[in-house]
Amino acid sequence: MHIDRIEAKSILDTRGRPTIETTLFSGTLEATASVPSGKSTGKHEALELRDADDSVAQAIKNVNGEIATAITERDFNSLDELDNFLISLDGTPNKSRLGANAILSVSIAAMRLSALQENMPLWQAIAKRAGTTPSTPRLFVNVMNGGAHAGFPSNKFGTGKLPFQEYLLVVEGKTSETFPIAQELFAKLGELLWKPGVHNNCGRLASTTSMGDEGGYAPTFDTLEKPFELLAELVKEFPNTSIAIDAAASELFHDGVYQLLGKSYSPDELAAIYRELVERFSLHSIEDPFAENAGTDFAKLTATLNSPSTPLGATTLVVGDDLTVTNPARIIEAAKNKEINAVLIKPNQIGTVKEALEAVRETYNAGWEVVASHRSGETSDTFIADFAYGIGAHGLKAGGFAQPERLVKYERLLAIEHEAETR
Ligand code: PGA
Ligand code: ZN
After folding, report:
1. Which ligand lies nearest to the CA atom of residue 288 in the structure?
2. Active site residue: 39, 161, 346, 409, which one?
3. For 75, what's the count of Cα atoms within 13 Å in the CB-facing half-sphere?
4. 342-401 tens-digit pLDDT
């Protein structure tokens, strides 16, 4: 591959914050990619380069300057060679010199460019590169947003708010069937949350429902169980539909305890809450149930929830996000200690497509599931949908339905499915 020219610029994400968009030009072809941005970011993630004024001016300068000069001067035999070149050009363990956002924008645009050159749909080019079998992921739709995604600073959780970051509905099947089901569920939930009096038994204050960062509702409940009771009521009519959460527990962890709804819990007490929620509401998965360095607590919960001898069954996924940060080495470590049984894959946590695919490989080597994921600050780039389909992910987490930047990912899945069926 030869890249003739590179052009990076600033665009805004769903929170109105600047992020990077890069276009690569090669002959008559061009390919563009933009990079999302997290809020509840893990400490072990690769570095998103931001300036003191919150802009990404330096990251853009790095792409248009140093990266452009270095990569337009040579030919690359493969995308892996290009990604390795970017990694060594940066030269730091966490891409802090050039910025993981700067590097990933080039890495994704190059993947797109290569698919165009091969005249192949992106998902197919990803599958070919990864050696995976493409398939439709379950939709993980974030219908109620809480925690850091509902406007709270991470150290100030008020009482009466949703303590967990994400309350998701998981819908399994072909996207042409799951998308309308998820859409109907999202609309029904909206009616329940906005109409005063409809769900008084949930202790909900209708006037306090707003929208969260990921395009889901951000309501208020007075107990931990009530949001689950509401969702359980909602999904019971729909086949192949279940409830999941992302606790994002690094955000709840202060001074050695977890703080939820104004009370403090030890790791064991929190584990007991999860067990009860799994038992009562048949949770499909729990993401980041403990803080990012609490691997031992993860391992204990994974063993409990997946022991065939418990009445809980052996099917609950314990998903690592801040724990594993799409980092192959951290996934290998988690596998050694049996800490989890599923991994969230977010390419911008690691900074190149090559390393994100390595993370996928290590996850599959461990015999675990992959959930591909967007970030809470998103753009209209749909790469993650092609990625999820191409690697045959268990699920795709792309947010709620109230933001176009989330919807385009689900809509891209629909288009991919059609493309795959008609090829
Ligand atoms: P983030 O949240 O993008 O703010 O990190 C998403 C998640 O925790 O899964
Ligand atoms: Zn998460």
Report:
1. 2
2. 346
3. 2
4. 999 999 999 999 999 999 999 999 999 999 999 999 999 999 999 999 999 999 999 999
